[in-house]
Design a protein that fits this description.
Helix content is 46%, strand content 25%. The protein has 2 domains: 85 residues, Winged helix-like DNA-binding domain superfamily/Winged helix DNA-binding domain (Arc Repressor Mutant, subunit A, Orthogonal Bundle); 204 residues, D-Maltodextrin-Binding Protein, domain 2. The longest helix is centred in the N-terminal third of the chain and has 29 residues. It has 12 helices and 12 strands. It starts with a helix and ends with a helix. Strands 3, 4, 5, 6, 7, 10, 11 and 12 form an 8-stranded mixed β-sheet that branches. The protein is elongated, with a radius of gyration of 28 Å. Helix 9 links the parallel strand 8 and strand 9. It is an alpha/beta fold.
Length: 296
Amino acid sequence: MAVDLKSLRLFVAVADLGSISEGAKRCHLALAAASKRIADLEERTRLPLFVRHARGVVLTPAGHALLVHARTVLSAMDKLGAELDDFQRGVAGVVRVSANASAIAQFLPVPIGSFLRTHPMLRVDLQERSSAEVVKAVQGGLADIGVFEASTPAPDLDCLPFARDELSVVVAAGHPLARRRRVGLAEVLDCEHVIVREGTAVHRALQAAAQEAQRPLQVRMQVGSFDMVCRMVEEGVGIGVVPRAVVLQESASAKLRCLTLDAPWASRQHVLGVRWLNGLSVAASALLQHLRAAIT
């Protein structure tokens, strides 16, 4: 049912005042024009919305139902209009983004930086969480936009494809695998690992692969970031499995080598997740579109 906002506002005014003539005055319409709009509205709904009597009008049951939805629609449109006005005036706002470590290390710095340069009055609050924690943050309203690994269960979220990455193995230059270009899972599981904390998408993928192979995952050290994984690998503590882009940034050092990991799960899809695409603020919607455009 296509209904214009002016007719909805008139309908609410008539319902509030109990009179088509008084509703017409509130909406600055001639009585004849207001009566026609109400008649057109009833024709579109194919239901009587008001019962007319000598002292004015009262809502029918269908009219009461429409009134609830009309108020919701008009409130949302008023909020949108206010946000658009603020956005055009450059009024400051905050977009909350929750992302896993891989996305923060690889995909987000450049597009968020360019977004903030073109929207200087806006602020982005970027929080690092594991993929599972990102989903919970978006579901719970703690984040407007989430960036997480696509295999993470995300019920009740609208998810959009974002970016792909590849997990690689990083080893010290003196490690027995350092002369190799590719390495299989069995050889990876033979080694001790430096990992980013438990619960991250990379750790879950490694743990699942080890369980499927019926092999233990030998964790020698847990650290807080991928660059710290590389630092510890450089010192000979163990090997690491990290996003390839991170390895390439760090392997400018002669002390590190980057190997291709021969495993189907090494190629990963990341997604952008929101609770409801149509429920985003203007600022959050603008950032979401900017992130998608930056990758494609």
